[in-house]
Amino acid sequence: MxxxxxxxxxxxxxxxxxxxxxxxxxxxxxxxxxxxxxxxxTDAMTVRTAVFAAQLAYLKLHDYTVIPLRxxxxxxxxxxxxxxxxxxxxxxxxxxxxxYTALFPLIRRYHVPVTLFIYPSAISNASYALTWQQxxxxxxxxxVDIQSHSYWHPNFKKEKVRLGKDAYEKFVRVQLVQxxxxxxxxxxxxxxxxxxxxxxxDDELIRAASAAGYVxxxxxxxxxxxxxxxxxxxxxxxMTDQVQFEKLLAASPSKxxx
Length: 258
Ligand SMILES: [Zn+2]
Fold this sequence. Notes:
258 residues, alpha/beta, TIM Barrel, 6-stranded parallel β-sheet, two-stranded parallel sheet, 9 helices, globular, binds zinc ion
């Protein structure tokens, strides 16, 4: 009887060992952060539409897989044990109208998922911003996930200096909770990911975001996401028109071996 038990133990150990190996193999994933697309570069946050199109073509040609941001956060939370080889994530912050006019047609053509971080006060309000209707149309495509970028994109560092302790705490709570609830009501889906406005965060803000129900939050530190990162301060590459795309991807291999 001893021999079959030994076999059984081997059988039970094997899958856990395999899962561990996969975890180590795909431990680094670059998250690319865009803001605006345009025919020409009018400011530091604009990437020419042709440049973005070329980047999508490059990803496809070189067998990268653009995964939904949720797949990465689920993976970091241990909810899934596998990511595709050469995984990359695409985000766009701020809800600029070019996300609809220029980025959306391209992600549809290449069929890649994108997460938009939106601050609701601007939507259907500011002249440069998306409308609610455009956001709904993009979400309905199944390629676009809409998450929170606070309610009106404040600079929390400045507000902390300007407001007293209690007023600041309340201000932070409103910015985090109101954005989440407005977006959830609009789109009927959970909003539990946050992009820190201007990439500004600290321990106090992280505690407030967790209390508001966010399970992951994102900064603008220029490196790929790895297992050692704080899930409430995950890095993203801020994309400009000058970014050397191939170098960026080469510096953050999403798979240890080809
Ligand atoms: Zn922003």
